[in-house]
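Aim 2, interim progress. The first record below pairs a target sequence with its structure tokens.
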Amino acid sequence: MIYFKINELIQQKERMENRVISLQTISDESGVNRSALSKMKSPNIKYSTTTNTIEDLCRYFKCSVGDVIEFREDA
């Protein structure tokens, strides 16, 4: 399954910027819908998105695609 590493990216950005970052802040600053971020944040929800959304997240977090998503074998 595809796993979104949003939680890890948020924690890393919070540490780097020494501030709490809400999903609403990410949504406002990246243009990615807040409910989509919420679904990506939950590992129990299978969610599909567009390459535009992945690109927006890469731009926001200043990272590569592999930092946003990864493939994991179903357990």
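The second target in this work package is listed in the same format:
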Amino acid sequence: MIRVAVVDDEALVRRGLSVLLRSEPDIDVVGEAPDGAAAVALARREHPDVVLMDIRMPRVDGLTATLHLAADPATAGTRVLILTTFDLDEHVFAAMRAGASGFLPKDTAPEDLLQAIRVVARGDALLSPSATRRLVEEFVRHTPAAPAGRPAGVDQLTEREVEVLRLVAAGLSNAELAERLVVSYSTVKTHVSNLLMKLDARDRAQLVMLAYEAGLVVPGGR
């Protein structure tokens, strides 16, 4: 079962999402929260696999809550999926950098939302590769380059790992990586696991951010 927490300041939205999720045999809704403070408390108590997080809420917003969840060892296994009405909003950029695993607009089709939850819980592939890449490219365009240079750990990557990182940033899934590199699926999973460990990244979305910050991929490039 995938354990999910639903966070939104609108009660009707929370209830609607919970009803949808509970209709699925492999998803268990462990709780709802009306703001970021309640979301953090809920996550620490129930340890959900995925938090569906609204980004604009009173008291404590989704960005601040995501920062707390990403920094707390007690919620290290929890993935945050941002739901927003503001496509490519600057707060979404910040949430991705803070540790969110992906984002979806609130008008996403129900079947796509359910698939996104399963993808994020599995940690196996980028959520909406084209949308995530577009978001990161916009992030790079609007964010000054970090003065400290390449992120820690990049210089310790092997040539093959750098190649895999570039392809992950391009939005390829593990299956697509295996086909492109002409290696087994398990070999690809090993490379990705090594990247996550060496770069201290929570998931593939964070690998994409690091690839852009390291200059391995440039906006609009292949």
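The chain has two domains: 2-122, 147-213. This observation will shape the mutagenesis plan for the next reporting period.
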